[in-house]
Every structure is written in C-alpha cells, then in structure tokens.
Amino acid sequence: SINWLIQDLRNRRIGGIYLPNTRWFSGEEDKGEKLERFVVQLAGLADVFVNDAFGSWQSHASTYHITKLLPSYAGLSMQDELCHVKLILNPNRPFVAIVAGAKYDTKIGPLTEMYKKVDHLI
C-alpha cells in the first residue's frame, strides 16, 4: 500500500516513492466527485507539488486540480522549457516550424496561431 511506503519515507527507511502513470487511475480524467476524491487522495501523499512535465497542458487531477490543494511549483525542466518559449514568441528569422504527431484535432488551434508567426511550417 502507498500508505506504508509513505510511513517508510517519513521514517527515512526509503529515499523516495515512484508513482506510476496516473492516467490509468480512476478519477484522473473524470469530472465531479470521482475527480475530487482522487485529487484529495493524491494531495494526501505530499507536502508540495512540483510539475516538471511541460507537456501536461490538460487539466487533469494530477496536473491541475492538485494545485488547488498543495503549494505548487514549476520544476527545473519546466522552467527551462518556459525560457525557450521566448524563442518562439520572438523568433530569429527565418523561422521554420516542424510539427509532427497524430491527434490533428488538438493541434489545429495552435498550428493556426503558429502559422501567423512562422516563415515556413512543415
């Protein structure tokens, strides 16, 4: 049980706890009561929340809703990514964007905006 691991962590018998991909947990992508229960359970595991996943833009339990219950911070990798956003907002010319991946429906909005800034879009 995770609760035993938390006790071991607090008693310094172990150095850390790895949680698997929360995407598969009931409540992670739900709405309403299921989501609320899951967020409270997650928040009960920690004292602070550090998000180091720049790509976690969806408002799921473990990336957005948990920030309402715990002091929350951007991790070092996310801070680095945010610094690089400046290069996209004020790019050197010529500016070429190469975009890959599936899920066209989630990319069309950002691609439309990006097209206004780039010299070439591949």
How would you describe the overall organization of this protein?
The chain is mainly alpha-helical and 122 residues long. Helix content is 39%, strand content 8%. The chain contains four helices and four strands. The strands form two sheets. A two-stranded parallel ribbon has the order 1-2. The protein has a two-stranded parallel sheet with strand order 3-4. Helix 4 links the parallel strand 3 and strand 4. It is elongated. The chain starts with a helix and ends with a strand.
Note the topology.
Blueprint (H helix, E strand, L loop, with lengths): L1 H9 L21 H12 L5 E3 L20 E3 L1 H14 L6 E2 L6 H12 L4 E2 L1
Parallel strand pairs: 1-2, 3-4
The ordered string of helix (H) and strand (E) elements is: HHEEHEHE
Give the count of helical stretches: 4
Shape: elongated
Distance between the termini: 48 Å
* Biggest pleated sheet: 2 strands, parallel
The proportion of residues forming helix, as a percent range, comes to 25-40%
- Structural class, from secondary structure content? mainly alpha
CA radius of gyration is 19 Å
Low-confidence stretches: none
Q: DSSP strand (E) fraction?
A: 5-15%
User: Number of DSSP strands?
Assistant: 4
For the largest beta sheet, what order do the strands appear in spatially? Answer: 1-2
Mean pLDDT: 86
